[in-house]
Design brief:
Blueprint lengths: L6 E5 L4 H13 L2 E6 L4 H13 L3 E6 L5 H15 L4 E4 L14 H29 L3 E6 L12 H21 L4 E8 L5 H14 L5 H7 L10 H11 L11 E4 L7
Parallel strand pairs: 1-2, 1-4, 2-3, 4-5, 5-6, 6-7
Helix pairs in contact: 1-2, 1-8, 3-4, 4-5
The structure holds nicotinamide-adenine-dinucleotide.
Length: about 260
């Protein structure tokens, strides 16, 4: 496959971890399809501009990962831009901090819709195209440290990320015969807009000062710091490359050792 004429889609790449992944894949030589919600197109343009400024190739696109047709159109954008689809990163996700006892059914369904159904629909849309092409591919989904250990007030979010681990294993089994690897990544705490929201809500719920929720719930991260999108992007660079061809069905933590804190 090689990265020099590879086409890679990254959902939720207008900001945060997705933006970091898109920039790294662009620097690695993939033609990156930078996709996010219609309301996030300023961020999409920013990501595209950053990739192009660094000498890479990128195309902006709209997608809502909860919508099958929107995902089909996104795959078409990739094929129109680069003739094929080689890598699909199902990164888009949302978080909500709420005691389980207060969690509404509507909110539970919403988080499942984006974080789990959205990953399922992304995996399926990507695999259909890759199987038709007959040349393998790399499908990669967003899990989390909370797919391995609990974290306060994030139970429904955590449930979706555990489910992504299971979905990733099943998809890997079914699509290996097509040369497609399916893996997921599990960041720890990454200083993005999502984490700011979690931190703020946790602090408010628990009467803690901003930043203290990390200490209380994350413990001492072994590597001594919260992570940045580039830490996750380093793993994605590998998972999107031929170097990871013999790895499938895995959810790999990139958490600075938070699993053991
Ligand atoms: P973020 O909120 O900064 O970015 C998420 C992006 O996803 C946004 O650009 C948003 O517009 C997009 N998005 C949301 N719903 C969408 C939809 N229906 N269709 C298309 N795009 C949609 O979050 P982040 O911190 O960059 O997180 C990225 C991924 O990593 C998420 O799946 C998240 O659950 C996971 N994660 C984050 C952390 C963390 O500490 N930040 C830790 C573990 C896992």
């Amino acid at each position: 496959m090689g990265t020099s004429n590879s086409v890679a889609v990254v959902t939720g790449s207008a900001r945060g971890i997705g933006q970091g992944i898109a920039q790294r894949l662009g620097a690695d030589g993939h033609h990156v399809i930078v996709a996010d919600l219609p309301s996030m197109q300023d961020g999409v343009n920013e990501t595209v501009a950053a990739i192009e400024k660094a000498g890479g190739k990128a195309t902006g696109a709209e997608v809502d990962v909860t919508d099958e047709e929107s995902l089909s159109r996104l795959v078409e954008v990739a094929v129109d831009a680069g003739g094929k689809l080689d890598v699909f990163v199902a990164n888009a996700g949302i978080a909500q901090v709420e005691p389980l006892i207060d969690y509404s059914k509507a909110d539970f369904e919403k988080i499942v819709d984006v974080n789990l159904t959205g990953v399922f629909l992304s995996y399926r849309a990507a695999a259909k195209q890759m199987i038709e092409q007959g040349n393998g591919g790399k499908i990669i989904g967003a899990a989390s440290i909370v797919a391995f250990r609990p974290f306060a007030l994030l139970s429904p979010y955590s449930a979706t990320k555990w489910a992504v681990r299971g979905l990733t294993q099943g998809a890997a089994m079914e699509w290996a015969k097509h040369g497609i690897t399916v893996n997921a990544y599990g960041p720890g705490i990454v200083g993005t807009a999502m984490w700011d929201l979690i931190d703020e809500k946790l602090a408010a719920e628990e009467g803690l000062a901003k930043g203290e929720a990390i200490k209380k719930y994350a413990g001492d991260i072994l590597m001594g710091r919260v992570s940045v999108p580039e830490d996750v992007a380093n793993l994605l660079s590998f998972l999107a490359s031929e170097d990871s061809d013999y790895i499938t069905g895995q959810t790999m933590l990139v958490d600075g050792g938070m699993q053991f804190s």
